[in-house]
Amino acid sequence: MQAFTRACVASQAVVRDATDKAHFRLRAAQCHINPRQSKVLERLLDAGHVGSGGGFLGGMSTDKYANITGTSKATAARDLADLAQHGLLRIEGLGKATRYVVNVPGWEQPAIRP
Fold first, then answer.
1. Which residue has the higher pLDDT, 113 or 21?
2. Is 98 helix (H, G, I), strand (E, B) or coil?
3. 80 CB contacts (<8 Å, ≥6 apart)?
4. Beta strands in 35-102 (DSSP E)
């Protein structure tokens, strides 16, 4: 019986994550984002969140964005700021420690380990 209960809870989590991602993608589609931004958002969504056993370690930084998309740091900063302005990303930290995390209610990202 416990195995069945655990399987049901796990199935509910998978369905909830799929629903969260679908709602997020609908919001993103209404924001008319560019292909670079879409690529990074998909990368963040694919990584999942702590509650699902995943997450994008340390969040997205301008350096990571520039490496993933092949753009300059300045373009990365503008693209990330635009996504945050649209409410698709949350900003955590300040200055060089600024990180961007996907803004899906209930999703937490793993912190950088010291």
1. 21
2. coil
3. 60, 62, 65, 89, 100
4. 89-92, 99-102
Phi, psi at 89, each rounded to 5°: -125, 150
Ramachandran angles phi, psi of 103, nearest 5°: -95, 75
Contact 90, 72 (CB under 8 A): no
Rounded distance between C-alpha atoms, residue 113 and residue 4, angstroms:
35
Taken in order 74, 75, 80, 86, the sign of the CA dihedral is positive
79: buried, middle or exposed (CB in 10 Å: 19+, 13-18, 0-12)?
buried
> CA Rg, the chain, in Å?
15
- The pTM score is 0.81
Confidence class of residue 114 from pLDDT cuts 50, 70 and 90?
A: very low
